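Running low. Got one?
___
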Amino acid sequence: MSGFAINGFWLAIASAEHVRRGRMEGIMQVCHGKAAPLRRIRPGDGIVYYSPTLRMGDRTPYRRLTAIGIIAAGDPYPFDMGNGFHPWRRHVTWMDAHDASITPLLPHLSFSAGRRNWGQSLRYGLIRIQQHDFACMKHAMHSAQEQLFSLDV
């Protein structure tokens, strides 16, 4: 994506089902549609989604990275989903990647290394991460894709 320098890196948290819907629409939402967190993100920033569950409200752990992309040009905007719900969104250019377990990465990520309760930092729904974290997650999500292709031999 030319014209943008990646200045920031972010980890968003949502169910895998919600992330998949956002990928199909080329958008992201965070924190139940709040605008303020999306205003912290800038075009060209890297975004990764972590999904603790498959569906919102489900208690069955999923614990996977489910999307990775670059924030597209433009500002956050409200969207009418009906029934009076107007969540804020941002456009994202999603990369081709596959879901990858976060578990093997935990000792290497700045927000989780050496922290027993690393998940507490995710309760806000969007956190700034380090470039190294983004690179590790990107590698894991692309490695998962390569492993799938190697099984097709």
